[in-house]
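Input/output pair, single chain:
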Amino acid sequence: MQELIVLNPDELDQDPAIGMNLAVSLGIGHLEIRTAYGSNALMLNDDQLRQVRRLADERQLTVAALASPLWKWCLPEAVPGKVDSFGFPSRVARGKRESWVERALTVAEILGTRRIRVFSHLRVADGPTETFRNDPLLPTALKQAERAGMRLLLENEPVCTVAEPAPLLEVLRTHTGLGLWLDLGNLHEVGHGTADAVRALAPYAEYVHVKDYRLSPDGTKQFVPAGAGSVPYKDLLAVLHRVRPGLPYALETHVRNTPADALTRGTAYVRSVLRGGPA
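Output:
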């Protein structure tokens, strides 16, 4: 089965054409859209979104997923830790949240994708803590997505409230209309980058993020091309591919100085592992 690799153009530049051209040169036919033209995708106007879609169509590329920031938020009176929401506010009043869900569905429709990422509320140092599993907006959003023929996929994000396998499984079993946007690097970061954890989560996985890093002496993460860091991808990708063949694997390098090289090397590495070759 041909592996499905996905490239996010904003890893290279806010002009999406630059990343799209790299995708074409690497033989990648699928895109993940998160930001473009200096704005979060949810904040782009419809004409800008149609331009992104037009650029993709001209290159015979399809948008595999919208990397939305939904639920990567807390209440206005809460204090989140350091978080990168890619140009989206990290504090959102409850009364404004449903409109962002509706906007994400519209954005996904314009881009031509059926997959939309969601998170599970930011962990906060001070203020009320929200519980994603019991959030009354979640069933409403899942019904709206189902009516639109779309899937909401929960990413396991360390700065959010649901990041480890046990609570992930609890949420996914409670809300059966919710899928898993499995970030293997994040799983490793919270101490669960194991074959057993991947096996348990694999039945729910519908989309995969691949990023790699090494820890610097001061404990900070240094992002590197996939396969060059500490995440045991050779084992994790092999297990996941065996249990769930055909999943989309999206390269999310976060390598700032040489992103094109990181994406090129990461693509070759993931393809090699998925094809059972040397890694």
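The mean pLDDT is 95. The domain at 4-274 is CATH 3.20.20.150 (TIM Barrel).
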